[in-house]
Amino acid sequence: MKFYEANFDGLIGPNHNYAGLAAGNLASVKNAKHVSQPKQAALEGLEKMRTLLRLGYKQGFLLPQQRPRLDILRNLGFSGSDSEIINKVAKQQPNFLPLIYSASSMWAANAATVTPSPDSEDGRVHLTPANLLTTNHRSIEHTETFKCLNTVFSNSEHFAVHEALHSHTEFADEGAANHTRLCSSYDSKGVGLFVYGRDGQSHTQRFPARQTLHASKAIARQHGIEQTAKFLLQHPDVIDAGAFHNDVVAVGNGPLLFFHQEAFDTNQQSEIFTQLVEQLPFQALEVSSKDVSIEDAISSYLFNSQLLASPDGDMTKMCLIAPTECRDNAAVNNYLSTLMEDKSQPIREVHFVDVRQSMSNGGGPACLRLRVVLSDKEIAAVNPTFILNEGQINKLQTWVKTYYRDEIAPADLADPSLMDDCYRALDALTQLLQLGSYYDFQQV
Question: Which of 8, 13, 135, 137 is the most exposed place for a label (fewest CB within 10 A)?
Fold first, then answer.
């Protein structure tokens, strides 16, 4: 049976805005309160999906979440009609508006952690939504993520969608941004590499470490892979430098782990890498600080590139889907040029994609996608609405051009007309996809 890696990208919603809510995310904080371009953002995301589709990869998408989330405001004691609530909050507690309008669910790498069927005990694909409880604006996502994943992966014969972990600081989970599946081939049994920043004590000085060891171990138990999983501490200094998730400084696929020299705790790295070599045809491709500084790695999001095997799963012919910022950064571009000449490693091509609107909010190409390894039968069991082809991308682009605003300024969050525009766009999306009354606002 043939297995493939499918990428399910987050469809960027009509609420795309720059609020700067994520401590430790340097790009998000730098661009806080700037004017965003939601139409451009969504079209950039769809073009990235089209790029992968045309290269021959399986490409799907996940729905935008409902924003604004007025149920959060009602829970906090605000009452009245939707417009009245927006007006009250704008006058009394305007700092609540960025929370309920947060655009962060676009980054599907944080949506869930995924274990494919060759690795799990029961032979099903397991998905656990991330609770994202370290940051207030992201902690509201997991219930909608659970609903979306159950809509996309609804066949319980092939898929097990778990609820998010218990919402306690010891079980803070950030999803696939801190998880990498390593394997010799997609159909063989792999090893889940979980990277964490906290193990009961804080190692960082500047920014909070989001992923905990307890959360990583809980996911491994839940998915039935605790006997094979590996757990590796992210270096606290690199978190303080702005690598708020491991996928800012490392990316892996198949037998290859591509990472920055400063990414991991060195003592643990040596031990874990030795174990991986014993279990897999493991190859560690380390980028030295002399070639690419940690500052350049973070600002360009070199390691937030998508690392892909060939479309037919050949691990000896890999490619990187890198942000254009990597091309524009002299040190990173020089490194990539040298890398393409190095035949001792499997990366053969680099494709640059423009996702500047996402990058300005702190997420690169890899942030935008959730990787799911699927067999032919499992692909056939996925809700076909969420598997893309050229025609569906065209329809989604037309929808975006019709319903999205060109710009959203911070002051727009206080205007109920933005809420109306967002809901109107999401309502049209559910009609386009024939999903019925999917969103809560449609069921009132």
Answer: 137
Q: What are phi and psi of 122, to 5 degrees?
A: -95, 5
Any domain includes 416: yes
In a domain? residue 368: yes
Q: What is the pLDDT of residue 290?
A: 98
From residue 417, alpha-carbon distances to 313, 412, 421, 425 in Å are: 47, 8, 6, 12
Of 441, 412, 363, nearest in space to 27 by CA: 363
Backbone angles phi, psi at 431, to 5 degrees: -70, -40
Closest by CA to 63, choosing from 156, 164, 144, is: 144
Task: Tell me if 194 is assigned to some domain.
Answer: yes
Q: How many domains does the chain have?
A: 1
Q: Which domain holds residue 336?
A: 3-67+102-443
For residue 380 the two structure tokens come to 């056939």
What positions carry a catalytic annotation? Answer: 174, 245, 367
Q: Per-10-residue mean pLDDT for the chain, 444 residues long?
A: 96 94 73 91 98 98 98 97 98 96 96 98 97 95 98 98 96 97 98 95 81 97 97 95 94 98 96 97 98 97 98 97 98 98 97 96 95 98 98 98 98 98 98 98 90
Residue 226 sits in a domain whose CATH number is 3.75.10.20
